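Letters spell out the chain; backbone shape is given numerically. Take this protein:
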Amino acid sequence: MTAAAATAAALFFVLWWMLQGEESPWVPAGLAASVVMLVAAFARLLVARKVSRQHRVHEPVEWHSQTESGRRSYEDVMRSRSMHAAALRGLQRQSLDADAKESHEGHRRVYELCSEYLASAERALQTPAIQPDGRMALRAGVERVRELQKHHLLIWARDSARSLTHEAQQRTRLFEKVETANRALECIDSALKIYPDEEQLNVSARAVREFIISSRVAHWVELAERAAFKGYYQRAIDCYRDALYYLTRDRADLAGEAAADRITREIELLRVRLDSGDVIQPKPDSQNKKGRRRR
């Protein structure tokens, strides 16, 4: 770029001197110098991209390639003890970065990198070309990476579910609450498929399911209370039955039984009012006004 700048400057002054007889000689001279600088900058960009591409292909620490050639290079890394150690250090460094940044997407990315590492290591262990000391080092690295994989998957599932549950709590409509909470449940279920005995995941899944149940029950109870306040007792009974359906179907603990008993008592009270005829009727004035308007 320094040579290009010197060439552009020299071309500018030469053209300016040659075009002194023309009007505004500095315009074509400046354009010519600008063309030289643009060509040099474009060439430098191409060279930088080529060097960066070659660096990514031959760098054993970074695990970003998803192609078959990249996977074959991973196996080559696993067969070399020094390259395997460098790759393991790079993976541990990315794990520390993900823990420091506290981003659930970063934890997901490290989990995927650990999966690639383990898949390549398993294929490399099946080849007889690895020396005994290299095989022992590779197995030790596999155990370490498995711990990292579990660590980051659990953090990703926990943080993602927590974030989505908090988002669901901010929603106002029931279907939006349930839809967002189900997304949180999907994150937990994807982790449970790999670690089904992890108590932390089971506790989080139960918490999300209880939130979905409580949201549905609270929605129908609120509708029932509104209908009962307006005197629509049959409609209130139907809403209470819907709340009771979700409560008895999805929640069978002591708290669910207590809530079901309260709803059942409310239904019985509404039936007594309904049978006694204690129903709020529309006001006569409003009916007379409607009749007058029709006339």
The radius of gyration is 35 Å. The chain has three domains: 2-18+26-58, 68-167, 216-276.
